[in-house]
């Protein structure tokens, strides 16, 4: 995204990139969190994944809408929350462990990670019900 542009997420806080850092604005265009993050994703389910540090030391964590760090910045990558869970990786590329965490970081599920990529097996609702699996 270009400097000065915004991306209004589903939680009505937009990401704005200014001066090399990301911040958040509300629906009126007023800053609610001044640019301070190296990277940021949109708010989802009340939390946004944000990154601190530089290239080699960059870690992702999650903030709430007040800017308070709710989940410590310790992940090498992080996704947005969907249905109460978010993808994160722990460990450097090639040695990472992929998992899903919940919003309180009380539950997690490890995933199989091959060469730094997660390869989950997704099943359709008909497959879960024992229906025809052929297209």
Major sheet, described briefly?
Answer: 4 strands, antiparallel
Low-confidence stretches: 119-135
Strand order within the widest sheet? 1-2-3-4
Derived from helix and strand composition plus strand pairing, the structural class reads mainly beta
Q: What's the helix count?
A: 1
Helix content: under 10%
- Gyration radius over CA: 17 Å
Domain count = 1
The count of β-strands is 14
Ends apart, CA distance between termini: 38 Å
List descriptors.
135 residues; mainly beta; 14 strands; disordered C terminus
Structure overview:
This protein has 135 residues and is an all-beta fold. The protein has one domain (6-128). It is built from 1 helix and 14 strands. The strands form 4 sheets. A 4-stranded antiparallel beta sheet has the order 1-2-3-4, with no helix packed on it. The protein has a 4-stranded antiparallel beta sheet with strand order 5-6-7-8, with no helix packed on it. Strand 1 and strand 2 (14-18) form a beta hairpin. It is globular and about 40 Å long. Mean pLDDT is 77; it is low at 119-135.
Care to give the gist of this entry?
The protein has 135 residues and is an all-beta fold. Helices cover 3% and strands 45% of the residues.
Task: Produce the secondary structure layout.
Layout (H helix, E strand, L loop, with lengths): L5 E3 L5 E5 L2 E5 L5 E7 L1 E2 L7 E5 L6 E5 L5 E7 L1 E2 L6 E6 L6 E6 L5 E4 L1 E2 L2 E2 L6 H4 L7
Antiparallel strand pairs: 1-2, 2-3, 3-4, 5-6, 6-7, 7-8, 9-10, 10-11, 11-12, 13-14
């Amino acid at each position: 995204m270009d400097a000065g542009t915004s991306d209004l997420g589903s939680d009505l806080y937009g990401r704005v990139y200014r001066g090399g850092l990301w911040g958040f604005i509300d629906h009126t265009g007023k800053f609610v969190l001044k640019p301070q993050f190296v990277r940021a994703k949109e708010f989802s389910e009340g939390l946004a994944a944000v990154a601190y540090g530089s290239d080699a030391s960059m870690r992702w964590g999650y903030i709430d809408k007040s800017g308070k760090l709710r989940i410590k910045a310790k992940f090498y990558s992080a996704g947005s929350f969907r249905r109460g869970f978010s993808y994160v990786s722990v460990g450097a590329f090639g040695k990472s462990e992929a998992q899903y965490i919940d919003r309180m970081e009380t539950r997690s599920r490890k995933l199989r990670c091959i060469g730094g990529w997660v390869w989950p097996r997704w099943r359709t609702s008909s497959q879960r019900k024992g229906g025809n699996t052929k297209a």
